[in-house]
Amino acid sequence: MEITPHPPCCDSPPCAAVEDRRGFLASTIAVVLGTVALLVPAILGIVSFFNPLRQKSTIRGFRKVTMLDVLPEDGMPRKFPVMADLVDAWNKLPNQPIGAVFLRRTGKDQVEAINVICPHAGCAVQYADSPEGGKYFCPCHSASFNINGTCLDESSPSPRPLDKLDVDLEKLQTTGEVWVDFKNFKTGIAGQEELA
Amino acid sequence: MKALIDWIDQRTGLTPALRNRLDAPAGGKVCVCKVWPATIFFAFCVQAITGFFLWMYYSPSAQTAWESVYFLQHEVVGGWLLRAVHHYSAQVLLVLIGLYLLQTIVLGAYRAPRELVFWSVVAMGLVCLGSMLTGDLLDWDQNSYASTKVRVGFLMMLPVVGEGLYKLTVGGPAFGHLTLTRFLSLHIGLFAGGLLGLLVLHALLARRSGPPKATCCSARHDLGEDAATKKTVDRRFNQAVLNMAACLVVLVVVLLLAVSNGVSGDEAGVELGAPADPNPANAYAAARPEWAFRGLYEFANSKIFPGNVKIIPIFIIPGLLVCVVLAMPWIARYRLGHVLNVAVTAVVLTVIIVLSFQSYAHDRESDDYQKALTAGRREAGRVLELARAEGIPAGGGLSLLLADPKTQGPKLYEQSCASCHNFDAPDATDAMVSDNPSAPDLYRFGSAEWIGGLLDPDQVGTAGYYGNTRFATGVMVRYVEDHFTKLPEEDRKAIVAALAAEARLEADGDDDPPAAEVIEKGKQLIAGRECARCHRYHDAGTVGVGPDLTGYGSREWLIGILADAAHPWFYGPRNDRMPTYFGSIDDPADNLLTAEQVELMARWLRGQWYEPPAPGEMAEREDVEQKPSKDRPVILTLDKWQSRRMEGVLPSETGPHAEARTLYRREHCALCHGYTGGVGEDIESADPVAPDLGNYASRAWIAGLLDPKQIKTAKYFGNSRFRSGEMVDFIVNELPDLLEESETEAIVAALSAEAALPSQKDADEAAADQIEEGRQLIGDYCGDCHRFGDAKGAGAPELNGYGSRPWIIALISDPKSTRFYPKTNDAMPSYLSFPEHPGRNLLTESQIGALADWLRGEKGE
User: Fold this and answer.
1) Looking at this predicted complex, what is its ipTM?
2) Of B298, B330, B536, B842, which alpha carbon lies 20 to 30 A from B183's?
3) Alpha-carbon span A129 to A136, nearest angstrom
């Protein structure tokens, strides 16, 4: 048995020309109304989607990392976590490792601080001691740096030397505490720009 | 039944639509080349179905993502297989799309009017890659975290929009909860949903465009198409069967891959690494992309592109390549265009495959990579043991791992301790050894073996113990050299056994444990004069001289000394460079380690951590507690130490010679030497075994020394090893018969004049003749032993300049030098015997100078 579709309740046959014009107008209006209706939820969603652009990093600032006495006198670098309160969306976690630095003595009471993050792709570089002198190298893409943080070869994947961080010399010399102005930088670019 | 089907069909048109759908793409001959859309759709369905159920178990947040995957993988029945099928069908789906794309290009099936059909396949491939990238992170294990971080970090290379894109992807400035929620919704909503949309679009477009003019089969049968259409029903049906058979093959492949790691045990299915640790200090060093990106990874790593132009291999070239592929239908319009397309495809594909193989080959050969991989797997296995024993706390699997001494101890030691302390374990993987340690080796600290070495005169002064510390020639080393060795052997053994017993080391794998009586005897010896003279030991001894020996090497003791070695119960102000790792309970940010890390280090040094019972052991050891031991909370222990901080603190000195007087007490002069009747208040020695130094070298003091009645009293040599020595013997038994009283007085005056004390300046000047006579007598009577003037002496202290500032400084610096007591020194430390290594000396030259000035009664500041 074939079923014939039930005619719509409001279907009256107007003349063809009128239908064309009316039809065009009607579909335009329909499209506009539909778009507007859909835009409202879409905009709501998109606004929330873009919220991360407003979020600023909370990690920067001077942090106490360690004591001068802990650093070997021969100038070997040591890796230390940098601790601070960490905000992860709705959680505030007190005293968490927010980054890590290599510290090494460059004099009796001089300390150099280097962010462990490789400027190429953001992996953490490691330190390797060798008879030819120590170097930093990145396990992800094999960038290598000498002990000052400068790139060891010209075709290094890293666009710039390792990022140095400021050490509070006054605190270092008066209290023996190593305070580092910790921050992260954008990776993959030649210039040193802070990642805020 | 038929009536029901008819009823449904009339209302929905289902059967005709289905028939239509199943038959339509076949068009011509039944052929394997037409199975791709069906298999791709099938693989997608597998993804959708398994994905839906994975979703039921998944919890996207930094503390629950890994944990929920762990739960699915190891606790839910068949969970590992569900996860493995989802994982491998994704890989297979990508391969299928790739093969379909390849066939379309090679056969030229992208030609008009099928351009959009072709594009939809390219888009499917891209969406599939996106889906893999987002899905990868959801495990939130070490590899997925580290490799995603790299990938997303590449966005920062893009000019202008880079940072914004990065933040939008990550959900903020750093990885965390919002990264997971974003990746999950992108994975499901955008990529899985997008793939479904593309599949539908592809089907619609393909139908509209009709069958490709050139396929592998139709090319040969073009001429016979009319004949072929007559039998379409048959053939179309066969194509549907072939499609379903192909889907079945896909399923079998997926299942085989899923069980390739076995069907039971922890390794079954897809590997789940240890939970991601956002601490860059613990970064995972074996992060690598999935196989599909290995070619790009190796390409981007190529030395052709230095660091500042990495944007070329990572974004520009792949982007251009996609554009070229999208443009292929138009390129093919030119003569040889199609040949060019195929050639480009072949070259690119070959390059990708070669680079991928190269990349894997590099990793196979790289020791560093293999080491990092092994280390990661060890942690993954360990966290499994811990999660099974303890359950996962609210802080997540990571908190479990971070509190585990077995895996974290070595890392923490390397970071915080190894620059001074070696850890010379026989097992090379655990050993941390530098050439120039400045503090004792802590391997098996507190064990009988370690303590035995400490109390061995041949070892205590070496780099393994105090050799490179400021205690290198200090009181303890001198005690071991001069006194401990003289104890009977059984006493020595008893002391070692009793002290080792204080640590209560679980891992003391001693086959022949000392008897209880031996330990008891050792305890009494320690509590007696032998050790308690300087060390607190339970109720005996004083606080503030040497480190507390109560529970030496125990968890509580180690927590105390690790937290603050400069605590008066340990080294107090004599502490040699050991930092205060946990100085304040109230201000956690001021501490170098957290309370948990301090405890972890204490437990690791003691070898105290959870080990799961060996498989066969379960049944036998039911009575033994299988759970990790629960100690009292570390914060209580820290609090106990903190509350003792005021006990044993030395009184602060003021007034003239405050520095010297402080040093006299702090650096243990007062341990043996009293100070009576000199400048300032008297300083009493608790146990005077050496001469009292009040008014040292004055006439009265020397007169007492040469008085047979006084020299054997506690003020001089009464309690020292010299009480039965040659000097005392000479003074008591011979001198009275040899010298007149006036001659003795002359000697006293002459010897005291050597010191040139400021208080005796006038008296010395007035008695020049007497002094001259005394000098003669000293040469005659003392010169056999003491070097003086022309007399060479023999082993007794030099008397030239006796008591003068340089003489006192030299004596304090090194009483064992040939000028003083090279053989007969009685446990006096050498306070400055390594002028070239300031770190190994107890005092500086100026400090010793201050002491000399005070002892000589110089005008103080």
Assistant:
1) 0.88
2) B298
3) 9
